[in-house]
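Incident review: delayed structure delivery

Summary: a single-chain prediction request sat in the queue longer than the usual turnaround. Root cause was a stuck worker, restarted by the on-call engineer. No data loss occurred. The affected request and its eventual output are reproduced below so the record is complete for anyone auditing the incident later.

Affected input:
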Amino acid sequence: MLTQSLLWSNIILCPIAGLFLLLRRSYGVSNFLFISALFSIAGLSFVNLRTLQYPAQLFSWQSYGLFLEVITVLCCYFYTKTAFRDNSEIYKGFGFWISLTVAISLVIFVIVNPLTNLIFSPDFPDEQIIFLTNSGFFVYLLLMVFLVFGLVQLERTLAGLHQVQRWNIKLLVLGSGLLLASFALYFSHSLLYRSIDMNYLGVRSVAVFVAVLIFCYAHMFRDTKAKLSLSRGIAHRSFVLLLVGGYLILLGGLGEGLRYLNLSSAKPVFYVLILISFLVLAVVFLSEKLRRRLIVTLHKNFYQSKYDYKEQWQNFASRVTTASTLTEIQTSILDLFCEPLACKGAAFYLYDFESSSYVHTVSFNFRRDWRPFSDTDPLIITLKQKDWIINLKENHPELHGSLIESFDDVSPFLVVPLFFDEELAGFIIMGEQINIAEKLTYEDYDLLRMLSNQAIATVQELRLSDQLSTARELAAIGKVSTFVLHDLKNQVSGLSLMLDNARDYIDDPDFQQDMLETVGSTVENMKGLISRLKNIREKPELVISSVPLHKIIEDALETAGSNIEVNGTPVQVAVDEEEIYKVILNLLVNAVEATEKDLAVLIKYGQQDNFACLEVTDSGCGMTADFIENKLFKPFETTKKHGFGIGLYQCKQIIESHGGKIEVASEYGVGTTFTLFLPLAVESQ
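Output delivered after worker restart:
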């Protein structure tokens, strides 16, 4: 009674679930197969119910029951083949058509054979067990094979999906897996005892009821649109394993045949055959040409697209990012170009602006040819005009007279243009293919265009980066050189002033002594500048020491000379003496040049708060507030007619690098005062 109630639950629930799926407008092949399985289960449950109610009519009802069992199992199996997959690719596989052929043959076999040829049950009213003939055993054996392969398909589907997708469809897999497992359990007696025990109908009905509920729940509350596609690498390896397995089975059959013939020398002959067979197998799978043919065959028959562009892009990114130099990147790019078409080698050419030609940069298993392609070469003209890949196996009369004609000894195959910003930045010459008979399709050309766009973008980015680095280095050298020239100008100004005074005071012994000291100091300063040029840096490295501020002022006065008045209190500063000397000298030279000859430049120094303070005041033309705010302390800005405009900029950089500061107070037409604040030495704090 309980079994019959459970069968009624299947009869009611399965059609409702099928209608529910139809109302959700899920019209995919996999859903259609599952809905068909649900209606078949409902019909099968009704047949099983009538068989239990009327045991005497076993053969009348079971003729429908066996047919519905076959339909149910086949629908469930093909559901596992088509669910969560790109069906446009599945239909191209040999396995699908083989399984479909076996399924159709099984259905026809069940229809045309009388039921008495498949089952018998002398005591069915008492035992409720159906026994199988050899033909019936064969039918249920095939059904078990379909069920087992269906369960394997579900397991592989779940393993092949992303974690998020797996969470969305795991209930669907669980429900359909439970459905297949319930029928596998019900049919298990067919393999063990050549019989079908209908006492297990209750267990099967409970499993079906739960599976259908889980399936409907998943469709209501989960995103069930995840797709699984077989990678080309897995297909390639699986096909190779299939070939090896078939080869070993054939070898085993040969050995069994030798044993059956009972030859006395069968064992040595068999060992020789094994050795020869493995040698043949090794030769076959080490052949690049056969390997290439195998890959092409797989792509033609199993996949809608010849190339997996995601895989190609990932391969490109991983190869390029591991290379550290431009040469390594170009070599990796050539390898990437050769790999999909199985070409033996390639060469990279880039445009050289200095020679206005395309020069060889890198080769990969290809002859190094240092002859450049000029702008007027027929190949270059053709590439610019056509903007397309040139297949050199085809007839190209427009290439007559091109340098490429001298490449016949390396059998060039393709010329791939590399365009950047609509300009031909270079090209790649690819050598002949390993499999010469292979014909290229539009997919091959599309892949090469995709790779060429990515390749030239990567190469040009690195080339422009190198050019930018070179330009920055030259700019840094130019900037430092300008600073050095400014320092030299200050030294020359001191010598020029001394020379002017020498005309009047050359006979004065004191002047002669001062002149010698000034020249000696100037020579030492110029030697220092020369040594600094040997290790050019944009910012100087400071050598801090404790120095009396008045000593640095006196050294600067010896060079600047002229009418300068000094007043101050001694103070020790923690500075780089040479750098601060340059700052004070620059301020003094500027002040002397701005002040009339009969007027003096004033210097005051001492301590103010926690800094040493130095003021340089002139009575020159002064500066406007706008100039001070917007242009002062900026490079190449000056009020002088023949100045560089970098002196005060350099002074500010040096003072700030010491942790000090520089201030200015100026009145246009009256004069200017520059104030330096320098760090005190420890003993002065």
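Verification: DSSP finds 21 helices and 16 strands in the chain.
Action items: add queue-age alerting; document worker restart procedure.
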